[in-house]
Amino acid sequence: MASTESATTQSAGTAITPEDIAARGVKADEDIARYALMLGDDSLILAQRLGHWISRAPELEEDVALGNIALDLLGHARFFLTYAGTAWDRSEDDLAYFRDEEQFRSCRLVEQENGDFGRTIARQLIFSYYQYELYRRLANSSDATLAAIAAKALKEVQYHQDHATQWSLRLGHGTEESARRLQEGFDVLWPYVGELFEDVEPIAALGNRAVAPSSLREDTMGRIVSALEEAGMTVPDAKPAYGSDRTGRFSEQRGYILAEMQVLARQHPGATW
């Protein structure tokens, strides 16, 4: 699952890479590992979704931009899955390619189909604003490894936010059609927003090592609503989608994503290149 560039984090002046987390003897307990899986799966699944835009974006620059955002997210996933794997002596690839659908912990927002460009931008705005608030607080975690991962990822998510914001303004104040499509994107995705802020297990057991999603709701939603209004959008009035436990019991998309993402590794287990 390695990306084209080796990502690093900085914590107390010490560089950490996905490759050396285990080598340094850092070991997550099971609760932290389950939390790291949740964060890593969000980024991994969204990276997979965004990869579908390569060669399909409305302009060449967006092929590059969305591809780079996908690579950033893949880097975040590598860190979190590597750290999670130390609890069970499993590699990042084991966790990405050899878990079944119900073992993933991704939220349904990142699993939704790309739709048109307007819908993808709507999803990016919602998720990048959420992820920014999450990483900003997680950078102060008492778990040094999680804090280091979050501090590095935060710098990249700042760009993701800016990209989504600028495109929302461009589409919202562009043509009647571009505004309609952006609004439709928010309308379709809004039922899945509430799941981002659910305090699912094992959050309660982690104390100041983790960030309770419910604590992010006010700041995140305030910023999202302001961004929508600035782009000339109407805040959707939609009921939350049924089920919000991240178990996959209510996911309609996860199995299709994993079937494509995992097929090569499962057909040729242990293969390297």
Automatic annotation (TrEMBL):
Pfam hit, one: PaaA_PaaC
Any Gene Ontology CC annotation: cytosol
Organism superkingdom: Bacteria
Annotated GO biological process: phenylacetate catabolic process
Coiled coil start-end: none
The protein's name in its UniProt record: Phenylacetate-CoA oxygenase subunit PaaC
Species, as recorded: Kocuria coralli
Gene name, Swiss-Prot/TrEMBL: paaC
